[in-house]
Design a protein that fits this description.
Rossmann fold; 10 strands; 31% helix; globular
């Protein structure tokens, strides 16, 4: 595997098959992709196209049935589960459609969770920048149930960005939001990408979610569609 200087993450011949009793379902079929440092990438497809499965494999949250994923020179398959978890904790951030905020703690504590979990100190000035640019600095002492869906998603983005990850994996991050909040979130992604050169890999069913992005990977029935 040759790693070019600007490629941060890549996958080779990724296939995924789920088996239950006598049924075998092939979700991904020989998928190849490369993601450059500091790029915004969309994985686009209809429901059932395999896009979330691909995202989870790229993020090291699921294992491929066949093929390899590389973060720089590191091949996931050569790493122990604990080493892969450490790589994720240091280098990756995650944003989900359902927000996944912890209901019993306030917004500030939710945002700071990655620091507690990974045992890494966070940059306090950067934290202040995040909550300001995300427009939630007046909300951090509130509980999740007191926030709107758009506000909860912005808090989830702050949590994902807290430790300055190299890659943000976002699974349908605007799926539950109205048009105005969707625009706010996509503009924030672009601003954070420009300011910090964070790479974004975003699963979406909206092909034009972000106008200016490095690449759009179109999936249909588990395969990349070349147009």
């Amino acid at each position: 595997m040759i790693i070019t200087e600007d490629i941060l993450l890549s996958c080779e011949n990724i296939s995924k098959t789920y088996e239950s009793s006598r049924i075998r379902t092939k979700v991904l079929k020989q998928v190849n992709a490369k993601f450059k440092k500091g790029s915004i990438n969309l994985i686009y497809g209809k429901s059932g196209s395999g896009k979330t499965t691909l995202l989870n494999i790229l993020a090291g949250l699921d294992k491929a049935s066949q093929g390899n994923v590389y973060y720089l020179e590191k091949r996931y398959g050569s790493m122990s589960d604990s080493d892969l978890a450490k790589l994720r904790g240091i280098n990756f951030g995650f944003v989900f459609q359902a927000y996944h905020l912890i209901p019993r703690i306030n917004i500030e504590e939710n945002i700071l969770c990655p620091s507690y979990v990974n045992g890494n100190k966070y940059d306090k000035e950067y934290y202040q920048f995040l909550i300001k640019v995300l427009g939630i600095e007046m909300l951090v002492k509130k509980m999740p149930y007191e926030l709107s869906g758009g506000e909860q998603q912005r808090a989830a983005i702050a949590r994902a960005m807290l430790l300055k990850p190299k890659i943000i994996f976002a699974d349908e991050p605007t799926g539950n939001l109205d048009t105005e909040n969707t625009k706010t979130i996509t503009e924030l992604f672009q601003k954070l990408n420009e300011e910090y050169k964070t790479t974004f890999i975003i699963v979406t069913h909206e092909e034009n979610l972000i106008e200016h992005c490095e690449q759009v990977i179109r999936l249909r029935d588990g395969e990349i569609v070349i147009e």
